[in-house]
């Protein structure tokens, strides 16, 4: 096959924001987590990656471009994803010899994030989910979201959860080869369609400590980490699944904020300490508390990933008070912006189908 023909496929993948956080690996090579985690996948109309994968005899090496910048594709984790996908395609080609031999061709991957990269808004999650699915589409793989989540996990742990919409768990698993460390649907988006989120960008800068480096340092030095992984998170996973199934927002909110705080406490307990939240982040915490106190009930829940940016979950009926309050604050230019520097009310209606 030396015809120069270009085969191409594209996909969108939304970010997911964990409400029970993944932080810590038990196997760095396979990206296997110490604890299970649970997240909400945002709508792909909001924060998302768009990736196009193509292959052709006219390409001479594998390449990856992110927002116009060439990226290093030789990293072991990206290579693991490519190797697994090529293997599955090779298997198809060996069963049906009439198929074009795409697995042996160089890949050109072009990706675009419509939100800040490496700033604690889950770019690695949307990024690797889109990378894996675009190549799976290109190769016409009959792979389920579960199988793709197993592959995407090797690119970035949180990416496995972006292969599903709605409320998504990631089982830590126990198999040494990671075969059972995959994402699963807790509930589809339609189960609780009133859920909303606003994303507040305190800083769009690349973080100082990547998630990968940060969690390794925590595993190596934090005394709090052990209790979190062994006791706190397993209990919260059960409670969170119940809260979601029962559409109990108060319970969902309490678990979400407490787990965010617990994760950032283990970061502070790391030696040397890691500070992902900043003064602007802490101000968002206080605004959430004030909104809840004024309402006399739990109206909103904040969570912070490995970065200073806040995600605030609330229900549609409380749109005016939550989005309205934060929109007002944004107008005052206190250091917050919408996720794409614009209208906060559009930033993060969740969840919808992907
Ligand atoms: P974040 O909090 O944004 O997930 P991480 O430190 O976990 O930050 O990961 C950021 C890294 O993820 C980037 O430096 C890049 O290597 C990778 N990444 C982000 N977006 C993409 C993408 N669209 N395609 C491939 N890799 C991506
Ligand atoms: C705080 O999935 O980005 O967002 O597996 O090393 O790529 P790697 O880490 P990553 O870590 C995400 C950490 C988190 C919590 C979460 O998403 O569960
Ligand atoms: Co990440």
Give the topology.
Elements: E1 7-14, E2 16-20, E3 25-27, E4 32-33, E5 37-41, E6 48-56, E7 63-66, E8 69-71, H1 76-95, E9 106-113, H2 123-138, H3 145-155, E10 167-170, E11 183-187, E12 195-201, H4 211-221, H5 224-245, H6 249-268, H7 279-295, E13 300-304, E14 310-315, H8 319-331, E15 337-338
Parallel strand pairs: 7-9
Antiparallel strand pairs: 1-6, 2-5, 3-4, 5-10, 6-9, 7-8, 10-11, 12-14, 12-15, 13-14
Helix pairs in contact: 1-2, 1-3, 2-3, 5-6
Cobalt (II) ion (CO) binds next to helix 2.
How do the strands of the widest beta sheet line up side by side? Answer: 1-6-9-7-8
Bound ligands: adenosine-5'-diphosphate, ligand DP6, cobalt (II) ion
Q: Based on CA inertia axes, which overall geometry fits?
A: globular
List low-confidence stretches.
338-354
Determine the mean pLDDT.
92
Number of strands: 15
| Total DSSP helices | 8
What is Rg? 20 Å
Strand fraction? 15-25%
Q: Helix coverage percent of residues?
A: 25-40%
Summed up, what is this model?
The protein has 354 residues and is α+β, with helices and mostly antiparallel strands. The chain has eight helices and 15 strands.
Describe the structure.
α2 (123-138) packs across α3 and α5 runs antiparallel to α6 (249-268). A hairpin with a 4-residue loop joins β3 (25-27) and β4. By secondary structure, the chain is α+β, with helices and mostly antiparallel strands. It is built from 8 helices and 15 strands. The chain is globular, with a radius of gyration of 20 Å. 49% of the residues are buried. The strands form 4 sheets. Strands 1-6-9-7-8 form a 5-stranded mixed sheet, with helices on one face. It has a 4-stranded antiparallel sheet with strand order 2-5-10-11. A 4-stranded antiparallel sheet has the order 13-14-12-15. The protein has helices at 76-95, 123-138, 145-155, 211-221, 224-245, 249-268, 279-295, 319-331, and strands spanning 7-14, 16-20, 25-27, 32-33, 37-41, 48-56, 63-66, 69-71, 106-113, 167-170, 183-187, 195-201, 300-304, 310-315, 337-338. Residues 18, 21-23, 31, 37, 122, 124, 156-158, 211-212, 305-306 line the site of ligand DP6.
């Amino acid at each position: 096959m030396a015809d120069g023909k270009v085969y191409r496929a594209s996909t969108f993948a939304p970010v997911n924001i964990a409400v029970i956080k993944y932080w810590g690996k038990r196997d760095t090579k396979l990206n296997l987590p110490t604890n299970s985690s649970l997240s909400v996948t945002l709508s792909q109309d909001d924060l998302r990656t768009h990736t196009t994968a193509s292959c052709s005899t006219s390409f001479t090496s594998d390449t990856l471009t992110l927002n116009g910048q060439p990226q290093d594709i030789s990293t072991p984790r990206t290579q693991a994803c490519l190797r697994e996908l090529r293997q599955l395609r090779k298997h198809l080609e060996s069963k049906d010899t009439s198929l074009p031999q795409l697995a042996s061709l160089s890949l050109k991957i072009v990706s675009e994030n419509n939100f800040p990269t490496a700033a604690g808004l889950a770019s690695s999650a949307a990024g690797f989910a889109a990378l894996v699915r675009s190549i799976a589409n290109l190769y016409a793989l009959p792979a389920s979201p579960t199988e793709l989540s197993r592959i995407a996990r090797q690119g970035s742990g949180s990416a496995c959860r972006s292969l599903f919409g709605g409320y998504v768990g990631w089982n830590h698993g126990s198999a040494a080869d990671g075969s059972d460390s995959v994402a699963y649907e807790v509930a589809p988006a339609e189960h609780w369609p009133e859920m909303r989120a606003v994303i507040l960008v305190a800083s769009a800068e690349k973080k100082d400590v990547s998630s990968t480096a940060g969690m390794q340092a925590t595993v190596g030095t934090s005394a709090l980490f052990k209790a979190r992984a062994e006791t706190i998170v397993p209990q919260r996973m059960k409670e969170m699944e119940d809260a979601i199934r029962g559409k109990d927002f108060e319970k969902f909110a309490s678990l979400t904020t407490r787990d965010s705080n617990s994760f950032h406490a283990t970061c502070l307990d790391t030696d040397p300490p890691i500070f992902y939240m900043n003064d602007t982040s802490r101000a968002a915490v206080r605004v959430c508390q004030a909104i809840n106190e004024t309402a006399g009930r739990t109206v909103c829940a904040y969570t912070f990933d490995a970065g200073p940016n806040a995600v605030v979950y609330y229900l549609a009926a409380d749109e005016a008070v939550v989005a309205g309050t934060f929109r007002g604050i944004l107008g005052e230019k206190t250091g917050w912006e919408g996720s794409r520097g614009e209208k906060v009310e559009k930033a993060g209606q969740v969840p919808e189908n992907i």
